[in-house]
Design goal:
The chain is α+β, with helices and mostly antiparallel strands and 459 residues long. 32% of the residues lie in helices and 26% in strands. The structure holds glycyl-adenosine-5'-phosphate.
Length: 459
């Protein structure tokens, strides 16, 4: 994990939030290369969840929501983690996670009473990560919702507007608008990539557990009790998608939840073998039954039933959900693509990202940056490719070996070098050809400038 974090900072993928002030725990910024990878991931995910599907509608809902939403959803009462405090130094720990570290299976969905029973049985094994003592308060449920003061002009904070605890609530709130504006027939999906905020007790492991996150959600609305087959299909589709973007199948697996979160009747995770952590949740796939729409119907007083156009029957659809944090997806993709290997005269670090995800399609370099004729020719190639692909890097910093190493670490699939042969100064038959170096093999080919666009598109 340390190597991945270091590469992310060194190469402009991810920075600690508010770093010059000592950092803000659980918040990260995506740098120039990171935002390209993140956007490529979002585009690939959107294509698979909207464009490749029938009757799947994308939305982008407002973040702030009516305070009653979080009562209806169950978050104000049930969205909590078990927290205990060290009596010696006031350090707070997340009890389920600390129990897990000493081999005791507990999870965030257990009742306060059950967690405390396990905690009491294992107190001698759990030490404070700061002072090393074993003197903790009992665990209490700590609510993870983050409050805002939006519209609180009196300042009494009695009815706070929360930041979203999960992005999918925006989908349930717009479900009726989608029915009225798009007239979909069941089954249909509503899809969104939206922000969520959680007052995580111990944000940790880089992008794995953050306080500000983005969730990519598909909510599939199906007829009541017609959930089983569609649920299995969703699970397989999502697993296959991870493999299609280049994640190694041996680093992925399914895991069913033993203890279900308050809204789910069945829940599976797709787990990824994260560096330092081992297999842990990458994406949640939940059978939410009619819980959400029934709750919102009760709290809002608005009829959210679907009218079956064939039978005229009215009913509340059931919801199947897939939800993945974009940061966790980003971490899994970078970790999976990270290699250190022998090449030429030493060890190189390389990100073998799927070419469609890499921040740049290719990098263009003049062999020497102090030769104006090479630079002018390289600029021409750069403009040609940039017009076609957009994301092309210009790299004339340091010698060619250093440029290759740098582009390897960014994951650029091809490096294009304009040299004296391109100018036709050495062998006239090589005039207007360039060297293209392959990131994964290091092999070099000579390609005519006129063929470059087609060559890169094919690769
Ligand atoms: N709407 C369902 C939902 O929010 P969840 O299992 O709490 O379910 C779904 O979250 C996904 O969001 C997780 O599988 C994970 O990828 C991501 N996620 C949740 N909490 C996170 C956190 N604190 N930091 C980063 N990602 C998180």
């Amino acid at each position: 994990m340390e190597k991945v974090v270091s590469l992310c900072k060194r190469r402009g993928f991810v920075f600690q939030g508010s770093e010059i002030y000592g950092g803000l725990a659980g918040v990260f910024d995506f740098g120039p290369n990171g935002v390209e990878l993140l956007n490529n991931l979002k585009r690939a995910w959107w294509k698979s969840n909207v464009y490749d599907k029938e009757s799947h509608y994308g939305i982008d809902s407002g973040m702030f929501k009516h305070p009653k939403v979080w009562d209806a959803s169950g978050h104000t009462s049930g969205f909590s983690d078990p927290l205990a405090e060290c009596r010696e130094c006031n350090t707070r720990i997340r009890v389920d996670k600390e129990l897990g570290k000493v081999g005791v299976v507990a999870d965030e969905k257990m009742s306060e009473e059950d967690i405390n029973k396990l905690f009491d049985e294992n107190r001698d094994k759990i030490v404070c990560p700061k002072c090393g003592q074993k003197n903790f308060t009992p665990a209490r449920a700590f609510n993870l919702l983050v409050k805002s003061n939006l519209g609180d002009f009196t300042g009494d904070g009695s009815d706070p507007v929360y930041l979203p605890g999960e992005a999918c609530q925006g989908i349930y709130l717009d479900y009726k608008n989608i029915l009225d504006s798009m007239s979909p027939k069941l089954p249909f999906g509503i899809v969104q990539i939206g922000k969520a905020f959680r007052n995580e007790i111990s944000p940790r492991n880089f992008l794995f557990r953050t306080r500000e996150l983005e969730q990519a959600d598909t909510q599939l609305f199906v007829k009541p009790n017609q959930n089983k087959e569609a649920y299995e299909q969703l699970k397989q589709d999502r697993m296959n998608w991870y493999i299609s973007i280049g994640i190694k199948p041996e680093n992925l697996r399914f895991k069913q939840h033993d203890n279900l979160v308050f809204y789910a009747s069945d829940a599976w995770d797709i787990e990824y073998n994260f560096p330092s952590l081992g297999f842990d949740e990458l994406e949640g796939i939940h059978d939410r039954t009619d819980y959400d729409l029934t709750q919102h119907m009760k709290y809002s007083g608005v009829d959210l039933r679907y009218t079956d156009s064939e039978t005229g029957e009215k009913y509340v659809p059931w919801i199947l959900e897939t939800s993945v944090g974009m940061g966790r997806m980003f971490l899994a993709v970078i970790a999976d693509a990270y290699y250190e290997e022998e090449m030429g005269d030493g060890i190189r670090t390389v990100l073998k990202l799927h070419p469609s995800l890499a921040p740049y399609r290719a990098a263009v370099s003049p062999l020497l940056k102090n030769k104006p004729e090479l630079v002018a020719k390289a600029r021409g190639v750069f403009s040609l490719l940039k017009k076609e692909f957009g994301n092309i890097a210009w790299d004339d910093n340091g010698n060619i070996g250093k440029r290759y190493r740098r582009q390897d670490e960014i994951g650029t699939p091809a490096c294009i070098v304009i040299d004296f042969e391109t100018l036709g100064e050495e062998k006239s038959e090589l005039k207007d050809t360039v060297t293209v170096r392959n990131r994964d093999t290091g092999a070099q080919e000579r390609v005519a400038i006129g063929d470059l666009v087609g060559y890169l598109a094919n690769k």
